[in-house]
Amino acid sequence: MFDPTSCKILTDYLNYNANLNKSKNTINEYKYDLTNFLKYMKLMSLNNKKLKITDITDVSDIDAKFLNRIDLNDLYAYMSYLKDDCKDTATTRARKVASIKGFFKYLHLKAKVIDDNPAKELESPKLGKRLPKYLTLEQSTTLLDQVKNKKMTGKMHDNTTRDYAMITLFLNCGMRLSELVGIDIDHIKFDESLLTVIGKGNKERTIYLNKACISAIQEYLAIRPTGDTVADPKALFLSERKNRISKRAVQQIIKDYLKTVPGLDSKYSTHKLRHTAATLMYQYGNVDIRALQELLGHESIATTEIYTHIDNSQVRDAIESNPLANYQSK
Q1: pTM, rounded to two decimals
Q2: How far are the Cα atoms of 26, 168, 275 from residue 285, in angstroms, in the given order?
């Protein structure tokens, strides 16, 4: 639904991205970043020191003429505002730079509402290299043992077989949270040990399942509720109400189990399990990093290498090389 307080040109840009099959989350991110940017630009144009950006609630009057007046200095002024006033991290500012660059590229080349692209030379803040947090092999096996043995903190429950299957998939396949909750039973080909997931941008990806994954899934399916009481019969993982399990529920389940592992806390999330899978395969399997990129369905904007197609057998080897491939708690 069109927001009457929004800039029409921005709405057109968001519709353009929707047509490119960008995910809803990505489009909402663009909307948030660019709306705040336009509010700042409007605030600066008013030249009223008493006003704050929170006082700007309507950017519907921003048009092509206004956008044509924005130059590179204005963009860097906004970047300084994000750093000094909003205390945005370099990572957050880099994301907003990407949003602005994409918007102005569209305005110049697609919509043709501006004569020049001031964001063409806009540089992104330098990002320091941060090593992602991940579980060691010992911590990973401890986590699996804790789940299998039902050593949950707090209230005990009878969903450990489901939880074990979910964590096994996270640790072996490195899938995203949204990919895991979106799995349908018919996405699994047991005879070929294959699983199809829907990744970012609604892109379909094939994941090869090792023995640990197949065993955990089959054990769960043997006790998974069936029949008319199941609200979503296609969904692999069900909640206690027999609906497709939600992302929030999975996040909480993982946090609770992680608290049982010595040295870990709730700061280690489902995404950290994704990092763990990739790290274990890379450390113990001598896996080519490009095979991991395909396995994880990850496209890095920082890479300068030409993408090389990875043979499917190498991706399968990546899964099989995970040291947890044959590990099953007793």
Answers
A1: 0.60
A2: 33, 18, 15
